[in-house]
Design brief:
Blueprint (H helix, E strand, L loop, with lengths): L10 H22 L10 H10 L4 H8 L3 H13 L3 E6 L2 E9 L1 H25 L1 H17 L6
Antiparallel strand pairs: 1-2
Helix pairs in contact: 1-5, 3-4, 5-6
């Protein structure tokens, strides 16, 4: 079991395991409430559309670090579930933007409710102030880092 001050080499592993724990808790809450979650492969769209708004598939692929063909497959899957739609790009008539449908926005609302549950679980462990400080520090690292591009 890691000590109070993990070794620097454990940073990546710790961050990935916390992300995995968060996702398991989120999925568990959705399941308890009878709401079908989204698969791991679909999370990239929810993550990047949620932060950046309507986007081209090629930009989503770049942000997620996957091939555009792989992103289009994910977009097709989410379209068939009624969670995203393609609409005209006002800046380029040849291009399409991917955006959430009303059903997709409803799922985001459910994800937000589950996130609040997980937040409270973590706050019960760390304390609200410590958890908020942790999130603030992680956001500082994200903002100071280089854009994620593969």
């Amino acid at each position: 079991m890691p000590g109070k001050h993990p070794h620097k080499q454990e940073l990546g592993q710790t961050l990935m395991l916390v992300a995995r724990d968060f996702q398991k808790r989120l999925d568990r809450d959705l399941h308890i409430r009878g709401i079908p979650g989204i698969g791991a492969r679909h999370r990239a769209i929810f993550l990047f559309l949620g932060r950046n708004g309507a986007s081209r598939a090629v930009d989503l692929a770049d942000a997620a670090g996957i091939r555009p063909q792989s992103m289009m497959k994910i977009v097709h899957e989410l379209e068939s579930l009624g969670l995203v739609e393609r609409c005209a790009d006002p800046t380029d008539s040849r291009a399409k933007l991917i955006d959430f449908t009303a059903r997709g926005h409803a799922l985001i609302g459910e994800l937000s409710r589950s996130t609040e549950i997980v937040w409270q679980q973590y706050a019960d462990i760390l304390g609200t102030d410590s958890l908020q400080e942790t999130v603030d520090n992680l956001n500082t690292l994200l903002q100071a880092g280089e854009p994620i591009r593969e």
